[in-house]
Amino acid sequence: MNNWLFYNGQVIPVETPIISANNRGLRFGDGLFETIKVIRGEMPLFHLHMERLTKGLAVLNTQLPEKYTADYISQAILELCNRNNINGAARVRLTVVRGNGTLFATDELFASIIIQAEPLAGDYLVFNETGLIIDVCPGIQKSCDQLSNLKSNNYLPYVMAAQYAWQHQLNDCLVLNAHNRICDGTIANVFRVHQNSIYTPPLSEGGVAGVMRQYLLTELPKAGYTVQEKICTPEDLETANEVFLTNALFGIRWVVRFRGKVYSDKLV
Q1: 137 in a structural domain
Q2: pLDDT tens digits for 221-257?
Q3: Does residue 104 carry a pLDDT above 80?
Q4: Does a structural domain hold residue 83?
Q5: What is the pLDDT of residue 198?
Q6: Over the stretch 133-152, which tens digit does the pLDDT of each residue have?
Q7: Are 197 and 256 found together in one domain?
């Protein structure tokens, strides 16, 4: 049972109140989070999670106490998994919030950090045999600015896209930017295959800087694949040979249908 969480250096019962009504994360979405997969004491892509978190904290001009190094956070995660008796795979959420205060000022020098750990279902560990069905969420557009690539606590566009997916029996939903081009999915980055090349939207299109996305951009060329960052419209997806979604928990999941287009899974 996941009965414990980590909060500012202490492991406490999950029912312990830790957020006040004046918390900036609650009031303004002022913070960041990382979702990390743990498998038998190992954390794939952990260094990429820490790189993204560090960059995000710098963009938000947010500080953690000096002791919160990657090694310290790693140890805290593993100890929390052990405390919660998770011996197999775990889903860990690390949340950073600036603390209490008004829109213009905070009462605290350092941000707060919360770590939660829960067992990870088996379907997160295997390639999906049944392809995903996806579409675009209407009426939602993300901006393309320095905040767009952050895994921010201000997650409302993706919340609305996830609701749309659930209401329309979709496995995931894609979010567009102000140019009506594809940013990413609710919890994943988007890749498409066209004529033996693999494409994914550049981060300048407004998508979250996914750690699995970054990993694949580095590793796929080593395996002999041609990979490029290229803008993507819904029409581009309809002419693709294959489409797949990526994130740190699921890895790679193949898409079987986008609107009226049906895909194969030969490459992925």
Answers
A1: yes
A2: 999 999 999 999 999 999 999 999 999 999 999 999 9
A3: yes
A4: yes
A5: 97
A6: 999 999 999 999 999 999 99
A7: yes
Q: Which of 212, 226, 218, 222 has the alpha carbon at shortest distance from 184? A: 212
CATH number of the structural domain spanning residue 209? 3.20.10.10
Q: Clarify whether residues 205 and 144 are in a common domain.
A: yes
Domain that residue 32 falls in: 4-121
Does position 76 have pLDDT exceeding 70, yes or no?
yes
Where does the pLDDT of residue 121 fall: very low under 50, low under 70, confident under 90, or very high at 90 and above?
Answer: confident
Overall number of domains in the chain: 2
Kindly state whether residues 139 and 245 are assigned to the same domain: yes
Report yes or no on 126 lying in a domain.
Answer: no
DSSP the chain: ---EEEETTEEEETTS----TTBHHHHH--EEEEEEEEETTB-TTHHHHHHHHHHHHHHTT----TT--HHHHHHHHHHHHHHTT--SEEEEEEEEE--BB-SS-BS-SS-EEEEEEEEPPGGGSS--SSPEEEEEEEEEEE--STTTTS-BS--HHHHHHHHHHHHTT-SEEEEEETTS-EEEESS-EEEEEETTEEEE--GGGS----HHHHHHHHHTGGGT-EEEE----HHHHHT-SEEEEEETTTEEEEEEEETTEE---S--
Identify the residue whose tokens are 């309809």.
238
**pLDDT at residue 174 is higher than 90:** yes
| Token pair belonging to 72 | 């310290």
> What is the band of 77 on the pLDDT scale with cuts at 50, 70, 90?
very high
